[in-house]
């Protein structure tokens, strides 16, 4: 016990810490404060709610809850976004209700005719191509065109390479982030759930990235430039 207390770098197992604290009549957290720090997120880590090695590993209930709870801003800045209609039950109905209640709803898509899209298709080499997935989203968005408050645009051609490599899905002060790895499609890439807990943190960095892409985005009917 003396060795544990005298060496600040030595932290006994939780059971041993508890036994020692009872014998000394002192809280274990007072004897080994480093053990507390290692359990509790501090600084920027506080904004990381959870991580998933694959986007497909994130439960559909997480997506549905975050989207349903949002009241001010929904921004879907994935390159294709097509999976949302299968990931979230009654997704169109939720979007209509959100827009009607005053929530801003935005979709930022990659242009299916863009050269970056075509190169990404060659890299992924899958039957359900990037441009096909984008067009699936466009078909679904066309069914919502009569709903005021739902916006959809293409990212600018000069931003396409930055857009295709990082998807940001924002729901008010929370976001689901997917960096696209090498040749992997979206559902095989990792996902991180972040939540705003202060200024200039992880959430704001990613949100600002999406807003910058949106600031240069173009109407859906604008032809692609290579």
Task: Provide a quick synopsis of the model.
The chain is built from eleven helices and eight strands.
Overall description:
By secondary structure, the chain is α+β, with helices and mostly antiparallel strands. Helices cover 41% and strands 18% of the residues. An eight-stranded mixed β-sheet has the order 1-7-6-5-2-3-4-8, sandwiched between helices. A hairpin with a 2-residue loop joins strand 5 (166-171) and strand 6 (174-179). It starts with a helix and ends in a 7-residue tail after the last strand. The model has no long low-confidence stretch (mean pLDDT 86).
Name the features:
226 residues, alpha+beta, 8-stranded mixed beta sheet, 11 helices
Average predicted confidence as pLDDT: 86
Q: Name the structural class.
A: alpha+beta
Q: What's the assembly state of these chains?
A: single chain
Shape category: globular
Strand order of the largest sheet: 1-7-6-5-2-3-4-8
Put simply, the count of helices is 11
Rg, alpha carbons: 23 Å
The N- to C-terminal Cα distance equals 69 Å
How many beta-strand elements? 8
Give start-end ranges of low-pLDDT stretches: none
Topology:
Elements: H1 2-6, H2 14-24, H3 28-31, H4 33-39, E1 48-52, H5 60-69, E2 73-77, H6 84-87, H7 91-100, E3 104-109, H8 115-124, H9 130-142, E4 150-154, H10 160-164, E5 166-171, E6 174-179, E7 191-195, H11 202-215, E8 218-219
Parallel strand pairs: 2-3, 3-4
Antiparallel strand pairs: 1-7, 2-5, 4-8, 5-6, 6-7
